[in-house]
């Protein structure tokens, strides 16, 4: 329902405005008519109206003065102005005061109703939009924490974007981070200790993990930001850390282990001033966290534990994902994988990298190989077995020779599995093509069209067909055609040129030559003296 205030000094027009329209039937539960601007203003100081219809020319306080004062009391109230031809300048001034519409005297009650209903509809639409905006604003305020977390994770993963990120940080209440010293700490429950847990249990454990970390930080004197970016990981940005942080982390690790009844590992990056190097500290913490593969969980690993000064370590660790061994693994070329691995191990042997670093590199090599296996659509458990623990075997290696022996066996197992799967698929493809040839040999069939049909290259199809059948595609097609020709020559009275056409040869002489080359006699001789 809506409310309407009518302001008109002429009694007859005022009664017409108030009573000639059944306002209640059109959604107006409160309609008040007054005879001058002062009376209207006094009423507006006590009550609120959705729409005001006012004359321009009135004694004591004209319509323009009333509108100006009414706007101070309620900027959202909709106003309709009534004016005559002689009051055009007033009408123009009222438009500047953001009135919604105006009526030119004289007007019919129907015209008044049309204008009021149009303004009412617009007011209701604006009200709904304001309500939705307020709802969105409330939702935004409620989710500021999630927005802060997303922005910070974007910065950690993709770098600080300068002024754009700074504006976002200021809006989210984090503008004071610029110029502060920050250090990133990544806390993790190793994934292998969660495999037996159900999905609900994992989410509940994650909530408990995050709350325990927040409790420990709240009890400390540190300023901090918590990012719960994965189910088994909590990332913390410590602002202005002191020299006692490493000792505190050891204490927190023990408390987290007891509270969660799960192994926990912590990786720590260097401290940097400003947001530009925040991603560096995060990557360093993640690198330090990798040491869990060689030393196990329940420890705090600082970036100082990784020999980043060794250029060979930096090269092998950070560029490992680009190694050609993974491309050859995708194509299933076992010989190339072995050669890549031998060259890789030899380079490591000459690098002087510490045994701990070698184990970290080997662990990541295995991890990335498993990712490739998953990308190819295979489950590494099907290849290696659910009880296979490559990281355990990496840690057991007492020398680089033993490590190489294990890695060779590991990759041989994977390439053997992939080759077997591909051989099975290739055999199915060749069998399907052979069936196609057997059924369609009489048509204008060729290797290029088949390659296009099966979405592989003609060269690869030719090689694959030869490997699987021991014959070229043309040899196989010719044998099919000649075999059928022999049947027709034995059991029908078709002439030789008709037999040639029936088995796919447009040239009878070429057919006769092919027949004699494979059978040893001409088609006519074969018919006269069949074996």
Which CATH top level class of the largest domain fits?
Alpha Beta
Mean pLDDT: 83
The biggest beta sheet is recorded as: 5 strands, parallel
Q: Mind telling me the CATH superfamily name of the largest domain?
A: Response regulator
Helix content: 55-70%
Low-confidence stretches: none
CATH topology of the largest domain: Rossmann fold
State the end-to-end distance. 104 Å
What class do helices, strands and sheet pairing give?
alpha/beta
Which percent range describes the beta-strand content? Answer: 5-15%
CATH architectural type of the largest domain:
3-Layer(aba) Sandwich
Structurally, the number of domains stands at: 4
Name the overall outline: flat
Strand order of the main beta sheet, please? 2-1-3-4-5
Total strands: 10
Account of the 3D structure:
There is one protein chain. This protein is α/β, with parallel strands linked by helices and 531 residues long. It has four domains: 2-141, Rossmann fold, CATH 3.40.50; 181-305, Alpha-Beta Plaits (2-Layer Sandwich), CATH 3.30.70; 313-412, no CATH class; 441-528, Orthogonal Bundle (Arc Repressor Mutant, subunit A). It contains 24 helices and ten strands. It has helices at residues 11-19, 37-44, 63-73, 88-96, 109-142, 144-158, 163-171, 199-219, 245-260, 278-289, 292-295, 311-318, 324-331, 334-349, 355-375, 380-384, 390-396, 400-440, 447-453, 458-469, 473-491, 496-502, 508-519, 523-528, and strands spanning 2-7, 28-34, 51-55, 78-83, 101-104, 181-188, 223-230, 233-239, 265-273, 300-302. The strands form two sheets. It has a five-stranded parallel β-sheet with strand order 2-1-3-4-5, sandwiched between helices. It has a five-stranded mixed β-sheet with strand order 7-8-6-9-10, with helices on both faces. Helix 4 (88-96) links the parallel strand 4 and strand 5. Helix 13 packs antiparallel against helix 14 and helix 15 packs antiparallel against helix 17. The longest helix is centred in the C-terminal third of the chain and has 41 residues, at 400-440. The termini are far apart. The relative contact order is 0.04.
